[in-house]
Each structure stands twice: as C-alpha cells, then as structure tokens.
Amino acid sequence: TPRVFSGVQPSGGLTLGNYLGAVRRFVAMQDEFPETLYCMVDLHAITVWQDPAELRLRTRQLAAFYIAAGLNPEKAILFNQSAVPEHAQLAWVFNCVARIGWMNRMTQFKDKAGKNAEKASLGLYAYPSLMAADILIYHATHVPVGDDQKQHVELTRDIAAKFNHDYGVDFFPMTDPVIEGEATRVMSLRDGTKKMSKSDPSDASRINMSDDADTIAKKIRKAKTDPEPLPSELEGLKDRPEARNLVNIYAALSNRTAEDVIAEMGGKQFGEFKPLLADLAVEILSPITGEMNRLMDDVSEIDRVLGRGALRARAIAEPVLKQTYEIVGFLQP
Ligand code: ATP
Ligand code: MG
C-alpha cells in the first residue's frame, strides 16, 4: 500500500525553498494518498548545535507552518520525530547495515561539515541512516523532497536492499523520491549556484516564511542578477543561474512552467520583472504567514495536534520495529 513520509528540520526560520520544494507538495499529496505522515525532524536538527528554547519554539513554528500551508491534521499525521522513539531505534540497526563508504559519498555532509570535518558531530555523519529509518519505519513508498535530498533517498533504497538481502527477507520496500515542479531547487538570492537554506548565515540570501511584504519586496529587489533582460526562450537562461532562479520561483508561485513564464515575460528588464515577482510572492506567502502567526498565539492547539500525531505515528511504527527486531534476532522477552 502506498504511504507518504517526509520531514523538515526545525533548525531555523522556514524558507521559500522549504515551501516550494517540500511543504506545498506535502499538501497536494495529502489528498492523493490514503496515508501521509509529515514530521518535524528534531533529531536531525541537533546534528548541528540548537539552543534548547529555540528548538522548542521552532518545532511549534514548523507545525504552525504545516497547518497554515494547508495540511489538515485530521488527515495527515503531523508529529515531531523525537516523540516516536522507534525512529532512533531503527536508525541504530541501519547504522549497522549501512557502510562507512556509503556515508563518505554524501554531498550534504561535505557541504555542512565544511573543511574541518573532524569537528563535525557524529550525528551529522550518520544523518542519512536516521533519515532511512524515518522513511522505512513506516514502510513509506513515496517521499516528497527537494532535489538536494535525492541522494539520501537513494541511500535509503540501498539500506533497505542490503537489509533485505543480508537477512534473506522481503521486508523493507523500495522508496521513491518525489521531486516535482519548477522549484525543486530554489537557489540563494545572493548566489545562483548555492541552494537557498534556512541555515545560511546571510538573511538576504533567502525569503523567510516570516518575512513581511516590505522585506520580501526589498530582498527580491536586491537579489543578484545580470544586466541582460529576460530572454524570449528558455534556452537563453542556460548560463544565467540567478535569472533562471527568479523565473523558476515565479513559475512555481504561479503554478506554471518556466517556459510559459518566459513566453510572457521575455524581453522585460529585471527592473520590471522583479516587482511583479515580489507582488506574486507576497500574494501567495502573506496569508500563510498571517495564519502561522495566529496559530502561534495559542500553542496549546499545536501541542494537542502533535500529541495526537505522535500516537497515530507510533501505532504504525511500533509493529514495524518489533518485526525488525525479530528478523535481526533480538530476544524480545
Ligand atoms: P538546513 O540548511 O538546516 O539543512 P534546509 O532549508 O535545507 O535547512 P531542510 O529541513 O534540510 O531545510 O529540508 C526540508 C525540505 O525542504 C527537504 O525536502 C529539502 O529538500 C527541501 N528544501 C530545502 N531547501 C530547498 C530549496 N532551496 N529548494 C527546494 N527544496 C528545498
Ligand atoms: Mg537541508
């Protein structure tokens, strides 16, 4: 049976990249699939330092964002990862299935650890193994993610296949990443070759879901571009990463293809295109921001949603962990 799982880290303010690349897809899939689970992956967040009070606040803000963006907690299962201990328990088993060489190939670790990888946490290194457990503890078949997570979902398949092979079972399914739309990789507003990230030190590099209309307009006005006008064909954006990025964002926000946008906007200078993009971004984002703020006024409702979500998630995860332990040969007195 098809089942959807995905997550976002409560590791910082949420970005337009998180919305277009992930959460908007989550919302669409809650209606297309019988069962969807969307997690606030707090265990992943602490792979880099998080202030405890901030982490708690951001976990609730992320839940508010999910709901404000259109997730229905009666339908989708919304919960935070640490409230379902089976994730971490299965991750340990996967740590013993995955190979060190596999982890060494992960580009996210290289990007995040930087030059001084010796100083990175062991958790950051093992991150993909925990992510495999997040997915496979629910036997999830579909994982909507941004393009940057493709490699991790592929590793999840490798882990599932090796587990099945080593133990001679057909237990874990092969998961498909769902990477769709015109904004699977929203780039930094300051550097068209870098992914927009909530953990980028430069606030000007991203649009935050908490930014007000003026801030959004200002960041788009100041976004890096080249001096040429928009081309009249998609081909013309080939070596213009910053221009390509703004066109992709416009396309995703207006639910059109980049090709359509170029057909309409080709020939325009950025001085004309940027205000149109800013207006569109504000139109789409400000109702979500407003609803997020409203939900954060009384967090007791969010906490109730998360409490119930964790119970529903555990009801699926518990038997899968039990069967895994059985397969592995753990005595379960
Ligand atoms: P961090 O910098 O802390 O890793 P992040 O912005 O990358 O934060 P994550 O919580 O790691 O956010 O990712 C949550 C989801 O959002 C993932 O599916 C990821 O692929 C997607 N995502 C993140 N950034 C982008 C982006 N720039 N474009 C499209 N999707 C993105
Ligand atoms: Mg990330």
TrEMBL record:
Positions of ATP binding: Q9, P10, S11, G17, N18, G146, D147, D148, V186, K195, M196, S197, K198, S199
Record's keyword terms, sorted: Aminoacyl-tRNA synthetase, ATP-binding, Cytoplasm, Ligase, Nucleotide-binding, Protein biosynthesis
MF GO annotations: ATP binding; tryptophan-tRNA ligase activity
A GO cellular-component term linked to this record: cytosol
GO BP terms: tryptophanyl-tRNA aminoacylation
Signal peptide: none
CDD domains per the UniProt record, alphabetical: TrpRS_core
Chain location of the short sequence motif 'HIGH' region per the record: 10-18
Chain positions of motif 'KMSKS' region: 195-199
Catalytic activity reported: tRNA(Trp) + L-tryptophan + ATP = L-tryptophyl-tRNA(Trp) + AMP + diphosphate + H(+)
Subcellular location as annotated: Cytoplasm
Family matches, as SUPFAM superfamilies: Nucleotidylyl transferase
E.C. number: 6.1.1.2
Binding residue positions for L-tryptophan: D134
Keyword match Aminoacyl-tRNA synthetase: yes
Primary site of residence: cytoplasm
Gene3D superfamilies xref list: HUPs, Tyrosyl-Transfer RNA Synthetase
Role summary: Catalyzes the attachment of tryptophan to tRNA(Trp).
Quaternary structure (record): Homodimer.
The family this protein is said to belong to: Belongs to the class-I aminoacyl-tRNA synthetase family.
Protein name, entry field: Tryptophan--tRNA ligase
Organism of this sequence: Poseidonocella pacifica
